[in-house]
UniProtKB/TrEMBL annotation:
Domain of life: Eukaryota
Annotated ranges, domain V-ATPase proteolipid subunit C-like: 30-88, 121-177
UniProt cross-references to Pfam families, sorted A to Z: ATP-synt_C
Topological type in the membrane: Multi-pass membrane protein
Gene Ontology CC, one term: proton-transporting V-type ATPase, V0 domain
Location of this chain's protein in the cell: Membrane
Cross-referenced Gene3D superfamilies: lithium bound rotor ring of v- atpase
Name the UniProt record assigns to this protein: V-ATPase proteolipid subunit C-like domain-containing protein
Transmembrane regions: 26-47, 68-89, 109-132, 153-177
Biological source species: Chromulina nebulosa
Length: 186
């Protein structure tokens, strides 16, 4: 079955749509994914930690202020996404010649490399931060419940929570390395 285009703006399929997407669009989608998923990961972790913290505080009110550290670790996940979004936004620059059609001498390979580099950098940070937020939330929930049972367990489980938060730091480091050579040509 063949689909013939009847207009100038017809695409031959998803392959053509994706391959002809502007590098600026790729870059901006990457920034949106990185920032959005980081905020979702932080919110999910805060929800997991907060619900357990409030429930466990009924039995042991002393844990309320001490276990807010778990919420702060979750919020750091969103901050990692904001930091990378600022770094990636500084990499995007528009061409000097603002014309409708760029010259045939334009460096298209560098242009697409920058767009894909920023896109996948944002994806890496967003996906690791959503995993980090969930893991910090689960560890924070366990920390609150264990602390309500036995206050000597707080520091031991907090160490596990710090390691879960390190996932987000690793993600932002990988994202910075991925986008290191991504510079839009001017």
């Amino acid at each position: 079955m063949s689909y013939d285009c009847s207009t100038y703006y017809c695409n031959q399929g998803w392959n053509e749509v994706i391959s002809h997407l502007s590098p600026y669009s790729w870059a901006n989608w990457g920034i949106a994914i990185g920032l959005g998923f980081s905020v979702v990961g932080a919110a999910w972790g805060i929800w997991l930690t907060g619900s357990s913290l409030v429930g466990a505080a009924v039995k042991a009110p002393r844990i309320r202020s001490k276990n807010l550290v778990s919420v702060i670790f979750c919020e750091a996940t969103a901050i990692y996404g904001v930091i990378l979004a600022i770094i990636l936004l500084n990499k995007i620059s528009s061409p000097k010649d603002k014309t409708y059609v760029l010259s045939s001498l334009w460096n298209w390979a560098s242009f697409y490399f920058a767009g894909y580099g920023v896109f996948f950098s944002g994806c890496s940070v967003g996906f690791t931060n959503i995993a980090s937020g969930i893991s910090v939330g689960i560890a924070g929930s366990a920390c609150a419940l264990a602390d309500a049972q036995d206050d000597s367990l707080f520091v031991k489980i907090l160490i596990v929570e710090i390691f879960a938060s390190a996932l987000g730091i690793f993600g932002i480091i990988v994202g910075i390395i991925q986008s290191n050579n991504a510079q839009f040509p001017v």
